[in-house]
Specification:
Layout: E1 6-15, E2 23-31, E3 34-38, E4 48-51, E5 55-64, E6 67-74, E7 79-85, H1 90-127
Antiparallel strand pairs: 1-2, 1-7, 2-3, 3-4, 5-6, 6-7
């Protein structure tokens, strides 16, 4: 989380990829760059990062009992299932963080194109 803004910290449950697909509790840190997931018993240095630039959507929000179930869909179409207690708002905060990240990327892209256009126009006018 070097230089990243922490938006939220806490516990999420992630469905395992194994045959039984058990729910496993994970400690998570949501930053302005993505979601860091690690085993609550392990060091934070051993975290799996789901960066916003590789996220496609946060889908399938469903409420059952006291849990909210949601799926993070990555750019490679891999789906990762999570659940959280309904009052923790993880799904909404991950979605909001991803949208803000994508908006920052889009603004930077437009500014880069505008700068390139200005530089090209300036170079052409100095040649004339």
């Amino acid at each position: 989380m070097n230089g990243q803004t922490v938006l939220k910290e806490g516990l999420l449950e992630k469905r395992s990829d194994g045959l039984l697909q058990l729910w496993k509790r994970k400690s998570c840190v949501l930053t302005d760059e993505g979601l860091c997931i690690y085993d609550p018993k392990a060091s934070r240095s051993k975290c799996k990062v789901l960066p916003f630039d590789n996220m496609k959507t946060v889908d399938c929000v469903e409420r059952k009992g006291r849990y909210v179930y949601f799926t993070i869909v990555m750019a490679d179409s891999k789906e990762i299932d999570f659940r959280c207690l309904e009052d923790t708002t993880w799904n909404a905060e991950i979605t909001l963080g991803m949208v803000q990240f994508k908006n920052r990327q889009a603004i930077q892209s437009v500014k880069s194109r505008q700068l390139a256009h200005i530089c090209t126009a300036t170079a052409i006018s100095t040649m004339s």
